[in-house]
Write a structure and sequence with these properties.
The protein is mostly helical. The protein is built from five helices and no strands.
Length: 99
């Protein structure tokens, strides 16, 4: 394997670890801080837009950890819901529940 291919994959792995680390940081902050509804919607939207870069179970667990200690929201934006349902892990459960 050429060195530049290894370097590319190493870089991508590092980016994924940064995103996973961001999920963990958000989950930790959520345990200590109360977010406004607009802030929580923005956080969930950002998490959903980056969900394809981490494993599905990591995304779902992080999403639950961020949302659980917060006040319930009325709704998410349609873009956020589409991004959440498009993740393979969530999509499998949605499709399973529909049948």
């Amino acid at each position: 394997m050429p060195w530049y291919v290894f370097t590319y994959f190493s870089f991508i792995t590092q980016l994924n670890l940064v995103k996973l680390g961001s999920y963990i940081l958000l989950a930790s902050l959520s345990q200590k801080c109360k977010f406004s509804s607009s802030a929580l919607k923005a956080i969930v939207g950002a998490m959903a837009s980056a969900a394809h870069t981490v494993r599905g179970d990591q995304f779902v667990n992080s999403l639950v950890a961020v949302c659980e200690p917060q006040e319930a929201l009325d709704a998410f934006s349609s873009e956020t819901l589409k991004a959440i349902v498009r993740t393979p892990y969530v999509n499998a459960f949605v499709c399973y529940d529909l049948h």
